[in-house]
User: Fold this.
Amino acid sequence: MPPDLTAAAFFDVDNTLMRGASIFYFAQGLAARNFFPAGALASFAWQQLKFRVAGRELSLEEIHTSREQALSFVAGRSNQQFVELGEDIYDELMADRIWSGTLALAQRHLDAGQRVWLVTATPVELATIIARRLGLTGALGTVAETVDGVYTGRLVGDILHGAAKAQAVRTLALQEGLDLQRCTAYSDSANDIPMLSLVGTAVAVNPDPDLRETARARGWEIRDFRTGRKAARIGVPSVLGIGVAAGAVAARLAYQRRVRP
Assistant:
């Protein structure tokens, strides 16, 4: 198939391409390697749980808190170290959580000669690993500042969230010569309505209640790859599973520290 240089697809990651939150799995992998206190993982998971169950935009204060928490994972560490760890953690905790249905949608765009980017609030290094492992074009993600290859604990710009995603896609389209009306975007979250509204074709994948309602009102396609009871439509069971897993991991790590000689 010859390249289609003016059309592309943009995919959110968490609960769109992957079951659960990629940054949580990364944090879980880091906790297992003793990179931060065990209790921090449970706290992080609780913040994710509140956000997912609420199904609403984060407040400025919550965004700031989330940003500071994420930066605490990397400050003072080397970029190369985290890329290497990200590769391992992807294999351990993420590869089996990719939605095959969503990946098939991405492959359709690739087969049509179109480029496919991930657009996510997760760190760009991790998003790039996911994109590369899945054979996608590339990724846009949150960028943490580095000096001499070491993370400073500050961001370059802001978290790629909400309207910031739409702006990132708009900028990429200008750089790559894309016609946004020929492009497609996929997301599970009402937070991404700005990005979905920017392109010619919007698809709600495993949508939260607000996005499902918006998709129906605007005539957007809806794809749901989740299985099980109807309650799964709001994503609560999978999030509760994350919370339980976080508590279990935190408890296990704490126990290991207590019994360690």
Q: What stands out?
A: Residues 8-259 form a domain with the Rossmann fold fold (CATH 3.40.50.1000). Confidence is low (pLDDT under 50) at residues 51-57, 229-261.
